[in-house]
Amino acid sequence: MIFAIEEIPALTLEDEDIVVLFGNLLENAVHECVRLRDRGIKDVAIKVKMTDKNGKVLFSVRNLVCERVEIKENRVIREPESGHGIGLGNVREVVEKYGGNLEISCDEKDFLAVVMI
After folding, report:
1. CB burial class (10 A; 0-12, 13-18, 19+) of residue 54?
2. In the chain, what are the domains?
3. pLDDT tens figures, 90-105
């Protein structure tokens, strides 16, 4: 994991909400890195960035993917039985609670989740 974290003077999230944000986004990234390593790809990294942007907290997690994840209307499209994407729903609830934004994107190489609260 590669972290780039700046001092955040006004982080006003409840502890449980911080755990939901970090826990779910990092769990998804770690899961995908394990899949990559199982396929013999050893040079994998998760990049985490947290910074203050005009009084708002900007938090992003970027990781490599085995295959492109289909996203429609800023939501992951998966089969319901896969169990994936549930954590992003939890992240979305926390983001909405604080009046923030969640943006996700994916190409053939990287998945990126950006939260601004």
Report:
1. exposed
2. 2-116 (3.30.565.10)
3. 999 999 999 999 999 9
